[in-house]
Write a structure and sequence with these properties.
Rossmann fold; Elongation Factor Tu (Ef-tu), domain 3; six-stranded mixed sheet; six-stranded antiparallel sheet; 30 strands
């Protein structure tokens, strides 16, 4: 067991490898893994793991531990990306020296930028006959990926993942970037991190791979993720070996969950089963509240869900009072949860579960952990802070008003009586008439009226007056027109031109 102190300690970096299909992501991961002593000792990586660790001796002969996320074709990273969870510290963007930037390269870059993590470009396949590093760097620049030496500051290393050329230099660069990022852990804390993957096995039950981002996980603790929790009866490392404790940046395997664990969800360790059950129940309750809001039976009522945190009970009561005054027959505010103190990690998790939720602090701000999650979230979160009650009230009033469903009405712009029928071909009828009120315009939609009842609709395709094609005919003038309609028009019918306008 590690010696726990109140001081922070440096932790290994967690690296994700991304890029376009067939640009060599898997080949690079395989090379790094297969040439590593740990992997050789185990005879390969156990199949259930989505993350693994390697040792790398840098150019200055120092030993470094690195954690890699095995993301190609892996559902876990999709969950991490879409939920905005905190997984990798550094990304490697693999680009083929033959093909340059491709669509999935840009998709990968978008995901990297959304997570706001530093990245390094690995120009792969330099051993191929058609490889052209300069052309690849030009392609990168054309897509606003400016590498070092080519107008930017993004690190770039040329490699051959197949042969291993440049891979040690790539890993050295990763180590340098991790040192600059100042990655640390608090070993005295109970572990927290990310669920990399989970599975329901009919023989062993529910098990999950966890990636520890901070703190220490020990046998005897409990782990909670969403509404799922498990006792930590034993811990398996990425080699499948049982260990007594695990520290930051380590991937571990935990069995015995009460239900399937959502991939990409954050997890935390607690001391007792009672604590685990309480956190899981709170999550389940919050999710039910959100589901109720988002599945209102009355489609005419729009809902604006909010989470409120305040500094004192008096402040919270004042906020509730102001919210109660904001009413509308078509929209309403719904408090998903409320509480005292800073906006915390659980508040942010609830907001991540539904991007429609507004997370509002009155006289309080997000704590450090919550602020970090908000900053790194791939999902845009509406997190706001107010110190003046009427400013909060005005803001909510504006947000609620913006949700009011728009209503539209039809306005009659002209009415004419049909006096003659000239021809009919399929749905197109040529008729003559006289404008009784308003104006008829070419292109108008018309209601066909018979004995003051609407019998069908049509559209004016062509309009003539005094044998000349015109765009409009006004009240008191006769006209000839081609109307497209499925209903057969008769002498004595009337047509009303209409337009749709927003009701004020």
């Amino acid at each position: 067991m590690p010696t726990k102190t109140t001081k922070t300690q440096v932790r290994p970096p967690i690296i994700v490898v991304m890029g376009h299909i067939d640009h060599g992501k898997s080949t690079l991961l395989d090379y790094i893994r297969e040439t590593n002593v740990c992997a050789e000792e185990a005879g390969g990586i156990t199949q259930h793991m989505g993350a693994y660790q390697v040792n790398h001796v840098s150019s200055d002969d120092k030993n470094h531990q690195l954690t890699f996320l095995d993301t190609p074709g892996h559902e876990a990273f999709c969950s991490i990306r879409t939920r905005g969870a905190q997984a990798a510290d550094i990304a490697i963007l693999v680009v083929s020296a033959e093909d340059g930037v491709k669509p999935q390269t840009l998709d990968a870059l978008k995901a990297i930028k959304a997570q706001k993590i530093p990245y390094i470009v690995a120009i792969n396949k330099t051993d191929k006959p058609n490889a052209n590093i300069d052309r690849t760097k030009t392609s990168l620049g054309e897509n606003e990926i400016y590498v070092e030496g080519w107008g930017g500051d993004i690190p770039c290393v040329a490699i051959s993942a197949l042969k291993g050329d440049g891979v040690p230099e790539l890993l050295d660069m990763i180590i340098l970037m991790s040192e600059m990022a100042d990655l640390t852990t608090h070993p005295e804390k109970m572990a927290e991190g990310i669920v990399v993957e989970s599975e329901l096995d009919t023989r062993t039950g529910v098990h999950a791979t966890l990636l520890i981002k901070d703190g220490t996980l020990e046998v005897g603790m409990y782990v909670v993720a969403g509404a799922a929790f498990a006792p930590v009866r034993f811990i398996e490392n990425f080699l499948g070996k049982k260990i007594e404790f695990a520290t930051a940046s380590m991937p571990v395997f935990i069995v015995g969950w009460n239900e399937v664990v959502p991939c990409g969800s954050p997890f935390q360790a607690v001391a007792t089963k009672k604590e685990a059950e309480k956190i899981a129940e709170e999550y389940r309750t919050n999710n039910k509240a959100c589901a109720k809001i988002l599945n209102e039976d009355n489609p005419d009522i729009a809902v604006l869900p909010i989470i409120i945190k305040a500094d004192t009970n008096g402040s919270l009561e004042g906020v509730r009072h102001e919210i109660a005054k904001i009413t509308h027959d078509k929209v309403r505010l719904k408090i998903v949860s409320e509480g005292l103190g800073e906006i915390n990690e659980n508040d942010v998790k609830s907001a991540i579960s539904d991007p429609k939720i507004l997370l509002i602090g009155f006289h309080v701000m997000p704590d450090a952990k919550a602020a970090a999650i908000i900053e790194r979230s791939a999902i845009p979160l509406s997190v706001l802070h107010f110190d003046i009650i009427y400013k909060l009230s005005e803001f909510l009033q504006e947000k609620l008003t913006a949700l009011v469903p728009k209503e539209y009405i039809e306005e009659v712009t002209g009415r004419a009586k049909i006096l003659a029928l000239f021809s009919k071909e399929k749905d197109r009828q040529v008729v003559g008439g006289k404008v009784e009120t308003g104006t008829l315009n070419s292109g108008n939609e018309v209601r066909i009226m018979r004995r003051n009842e609407e019998i069908g609709r049509g559209k004016i395709r062509e309009l003539q007056s005094k044998k000349l094609r015109v765009s409009e005919v006004v009240e008191g003038f006769e006209f000839g027109t081609m109307i497209e309609a499925k209903i057969e028009i008769a002498i004595g019918d009337r047509v009303e031109s209409v337009r749709t306008i927003e009701k004020i």
